[in-house]
């Protein structure tokens, strides 16, 4: 708990004033550079736009709805693991109901019954203080007010999780939009990698990550220094790593030998999955990916994963032409898209 208190005390400076600014008349500029880190303060589902507090001011990030190439749209939507609509849920998780005792004037949390309106004030959890209490803000007739509450351990854990989900670390396109899977696929294709090869690379990565996550967790090794920061390890092989190996001369067959042959081998197979001709749900698709990598999910022995699609056309895609337009680093999504 002490470590999390220090982290959020240093990083979370989210206030209702920032959220209010996001709705103000002054236009908020788009985020610049190839990466943005900070705290999510607003998300507009109508425009697919997130507002970020970088610590130096507010900026916006737009999420692309579609791309010029239909295959990029198809593959981007299929392989993406990040849904921007989840951001609204992250913001909602920080909103609570508080009531004030008329005698002591002390504030406390209140859990409205189903269908009941908040009898007090709707407030937003904005940060954890150095003493372990949580800062909550609300507005009365346009005037912002703040209260600090000490909550029980389970509630504190929920608040910390909600606050953590607002911390973002996103890679951006040149126009400041979110570098999602579709953007990566478009950039890789522009650099000379065919769609058929990209399907295989993304399928290998997806299957290896699912198989890795499905592996039983063994005993944790002792940590020598609990205060020391260690880099977060990704599960499975990343698309970036596979692209590097492919560009370095490894053939698709070589990658199959190293990482296993995935069940998805071409654009046509993706089309069938999206249209529902092969598998009825993403859940079934995930099960089949796990089975393809030697994992046997319990209770799913009778799943029909279809026949393996072999396409000579996609297997004979051109190797690649290295260009300076190589996409940004592809890393996994951390809380709400921290990695895609």
Please render the helix and strand layout as text.
Blueprint: H1 2-11, H2 16-22, E1 35-44, E2 49-53, E3 58-62, H3 70-79, H4 86-92, E4 95-100, E5 107-110, E6 121-128, E7 134-140, E8 143-149, H5 153-164, E9 167-171, H6 181-190, H7 195-214, H8 239-247, H9 252-259, H10 267-275, H11 282-292, H12 312-315
Antiparallel strand pairs: 1-2, 1-9, 2-3, 4-5, 4-6, 6-7, 7-8
Helix pairs in contact: 3-6, 3-7, 3-10, 7-11
Q: In words, what does this structure look like?
A:
- With about 350 residues, the protein is of the alpha+beta class.
- Helices cover about 35% and strands about 15% of the residues.
- It contains twelve helices and nine strands.
- A five-stranded antiparallel beta sheet has the order 5-4-6-7-8. A four-stranded antiparallel beta sheet has the order 3-2-1-9.
- A hairpin with a 4-residue loop joins strand 2 and strand 3.
- The longest helix has 20 residues.
- The chain starts with a helix and ends in a 25-residue tail after the last helix.
- The N terminus and C terminus are likely disordered.
């Amino acid at each position: 708990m002490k470590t999390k208190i220090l982290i959020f005390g240093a990083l979370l400076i989210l206030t209702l004033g920032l959220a209010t600014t996001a709705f103000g008349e002054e236009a908020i500029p788009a985020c610049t550079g190839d990466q943005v880190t900070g705290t999510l303060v607003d998300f507009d589902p109508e425009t697919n736009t997130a507002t970020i507090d970088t610590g130096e001011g507010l900026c916006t990030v737009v999420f692309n709805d579609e791309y010029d190439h239909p295959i990029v749209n198809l593959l981007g939507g299929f392989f993406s693991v990040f849904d921007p609509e989840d951001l609204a849920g992250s913001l909602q998780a920080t909103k609570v109901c508080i009531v004030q005792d008329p005698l002591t004037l002390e504030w406390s949390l209140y859990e409205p019954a189903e269908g009941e309106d908040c009898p007090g004030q709707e407030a937003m959890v904005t940060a954890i203080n150095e003493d372990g209490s949580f800062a909550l803000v609300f507005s009365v007739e346009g005037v912002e007010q703040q209260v600090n509450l000490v909550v029980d351990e389970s509630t504190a854990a929920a608040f910390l999780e909600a606050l953590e989900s607002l911390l973002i670390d996103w890679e951006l396109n040149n126009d400041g939009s979110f570098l999602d899977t579709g953007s990566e696929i478009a950039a890789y294709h522009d650099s000379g990698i065919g769609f058929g090869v990209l399907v295989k690379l993304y399928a290998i990565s997806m299957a290896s990550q699912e198989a890795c996550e499905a592996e039983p967790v063994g005993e944790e090794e002792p940590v020598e220094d609990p205060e020391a920061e260690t880099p977060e390890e990704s599960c499975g092989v990343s698309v970036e790593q596979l692209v590097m190996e492919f560009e370095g001369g490894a053939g698709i067959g070589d990658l199959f030998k190293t990482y296993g042959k995935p069940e998805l081998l071409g654009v046509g197979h993706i089309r069938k999955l999206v249209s529902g001709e092969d598998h009825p749900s993403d859940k079934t698709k995930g099960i089949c990916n796990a089975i393809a990598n030697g994992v046997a999910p319990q209770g799913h022995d009778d799943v029909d994963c279809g026949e393996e699609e072999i396409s000579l056309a996609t297997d004979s895609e051109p190797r690649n032409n290295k260009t300076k337009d190589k996409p940004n680093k592809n890393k996994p999504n951390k809380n709400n898209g921290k990695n895609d």
